[in-house]
Structure formats: C-alpha cells, structure tokens
Amino acid sequence: MIRAVRLIPARKIRDGVELARDVIAGPPGTAPLLRAGVKLSDRYAELLPKAGIGSVWIADDLGEAIEIAEPLSPETRAKVFKTTGDAISAARNALRTGTGMPPKVVSSLDVVANAMVDDLLDCPDAALVLDDLSVFDDYTHRHSVQVTVLGMLIARRTWTTEGWLDYRGRRRFDRVDERLRKLGLGLLVHDVGKLAVPPEILNKPARLTDAEMEIMKGHAYAGVELLRTADLSPLTISIVRDHHERLDGSGYPEGLFGREIQEFPRIAAVADVYDAVTSERVYKVAEAPHVGVRVIRDGAGHQFCPGVVQHFRAVVMPYPIGHEIALPDGRIGVVSAVDTAFPDVPTVRATTPDGGIEEFSVDMATGAERAVA
Q1: Which is it for strands 347-351 and 369-371: parallel, antiparallel or unpaired?
Q2: Which letter does DSSP use for residue 167 in this model?
Q3: Which position has the higher pLDDT, 68 or 26?
Q4: Quick count: other Cβ atoms within 10 Å of Cβ 335?
C-alpha cells in the first residue's frame, strides 16, 4: 500500500508541488531522473511527458492517509520490465531474420506471467493504480504490461465469482491460477505483431487510409507467425490473433461474430481498448479514467462482451482513489474513497475558501454533494 501520496498526470504538474516518489526514466536500478522531495515547477508539465513520464506521485495535505494498492510488487515490476523488454528486442530480431521468437524468450515470459498471477491473486478489486508504468520505455512496452495487469484482474474476478467453462461445458472453479498464467502470457505478447507495422503508420496522428488500415490489421497474424515456434496454448494464441474481433462482427482480422470469439480475446479486447483510450501517445493526450470507462460501458453488447464489461466495471473505477478530478463546482478534488456499488459517486477531498480541507461524496453526473459522516 502507498500512503499519504497521490498520482497526478505529469502534464498537470503545478509550481511548488512536492515529488513523493523518485521518477525513473530507465531500467529499474538506474539513477532517478528526479528524486523524491524535490519541488517541481510547471515547466515539468511539458518536459516529463516528452521524456515518456505520464504520471508522478506527489505529497500534499489532500493525499494524507489515502491508501492505494499497487497491483505488482517492485520485485515483480523489475522482472516484468526486463523480460518484456528482452522479448520486444527478440521479436524485432526475429522480424529481421525471418525466424520465430526463440522458445526460451517465451518461456521467460511465462515465468513472469506466473509471478504476476501471484501478486494479483492477493490484490484488492478496486483501489488500484493502473497507470504508474512510466519506467517502461515505449508505448508498446508499457501498453503490453498495462493490458496484462488489467486483463488478469478482470479474469480473476470473473473466474473466482462465476467460474469458467471447460471444453465439456462444465462450470469449474479450480485451476484459476493456471488459467490466469495462460491468459497473462497471451496478453504480454498480444501486440507483438505491431513491431512489423511501419512506425509512420503505427504513430500516424490522422485517420489511416484504407491501404494503411489493411497493413495495421495484419499485425494480428504477424504476431501469430512470430510465435509459431513457441508451442503455445491455443487459448494464448487466440488472444494474439483475435483481440481486435468484436461481438457484432465489425472487428478484424476475420470479422468473427458473437460466440465465435473465445473468452480470452473477449477479455483482452476490453483491457486493450481501455488502456489505449487512457494512455498518452505521440499523437494524442491521455483521456481520464472515466472517459475510458464510458467507452467500454457504451460498447457493451455490440463491441464487447457484457459479462466481461460487468467485471471490468467492478475492477476499474471511473474516478480512482488518489486521482485528481474536476468537481462540478469548478474546484479540483482528490478521490479519497470509492464504493464499487456506486462508482460515479466518489468520496473526494477539496480545499475550502479559508484554506481548510473538506471531505464529501459527490455525484459526478448531477453535481449533488453529501457530507461524509
């Protein structure tokens, strides 16, 4: 648990805020770019995003005693950083040489996925930090890990509350950790095929042409081809191939419809889109969590599996603990607590005109406030 600090987007840094945790811009163990305790100025709001730092931890009175759960331990984060980075390098080399991903690289990802399972099985559902992966050196690296964490959390909740169906159609509650590992491995490599897409298409700020879109769609099969030598579970491969398929048949690469899409890629689709919406890219500003939640909610039933969306909404809060939000009255507040039964009515802290701090719940849809007992 993290105490007495809160996470803010780097682009929202203001003069005088105190950095609560070191800012790392390289592999774990390297010297920090900025050390905890330094007073930041608003110029860092421009400089840090350019350095790939999307968010920073700050310490102030509004964050006092707020408890936030990190889904991965520092040890696991370091393992994930190195192993996924090595895998991306191996995939690039495989593309150059026309060979598949070395099986030993995929095996190391499997070990990391297992370590992530161990951490996530002990993690609470809602009070989570999902956007503090600034040490990951590029979008592909960071996105793969974010999607893995979120997808595994959705699956954990699904399989521990509803079970899973085996090939005979029997509902089971055993072997959840093994199933999570297979899912996690697929999520870690779900976008590996994008390394075959030219950067000018991958990072294009404007709408892709039809020809460019066809190239982009090819990344699903490119990923499968890269992994052909790894002897992976069909469940794992289905994520790489089908995470862009949609229930209404509007997805790619095959335009699968409804039940033709397996459970693993259904979970991956939700995690993938949420992270894409809420991530900073070279051509777009990250959207707030509530925007990402709305995109997923609005897609339930035609783009995304309603059951997956239901569990996603129990895991991902539109107004997460520790985040700054713009209150209906124009003030900036900090979320201090959430109730998963009423996700749009967070408990927030805000400063009063006389410089004090008040805490209250607020309905973000109507603006109605209620004192906290």
Answers
A1: unpaired
A2: T
A3: 68
A4: 25
Measured at the CA of 55, the angle between CA 122 and CA 121, to 5 degrees, comes to 10
| CATH tag, 74-315 | 1.10.3210.10
CATH homologous superfamily for the domain 1-68: Molybdopterin biosynthesis moea protein, domain 2 (3.90.105.10)
Rounded mean pLDDT of 61-72?
74
pLDDT at residue 135, as a whole number: 45
Question: Is residue 67 within 8 Å of 1, Cβ to Cβ?
Answer: yes
Instruction: List the chain domain ranges.
Output: 1-68, 74-315, 323-373
Residue 19 has pLDDT above 50, yes or no: yes
Q: How far apart are CA 348 and CA 320, in angstroms?
A: 10
pLDDT tens profile 93-148: 998 888 889 999 999 999 999 999 998 887 766 545 555 544 444 566 778 888 99
Cα–Cα dist 306/303, whole Å = 9
Stated length of the chain: 373
pTM of this structure: 0.89
Q: Which of 116, 162, 143 is nearest to 310 (CA)?
A: 162
Percent of residues, the chain, with pLDDT higher than 70: 91
Question: Peptide bond preceding 253: is omega within 30 degrees of 0, i.e. cis?
Answer: yes
Q: Which residue has the tokens 């870690």?
A: 188
344 neighbors 353 (Cβ within 8 angstroms): no
The span from the CA of 145 to the CA of 80, in Å, is 8
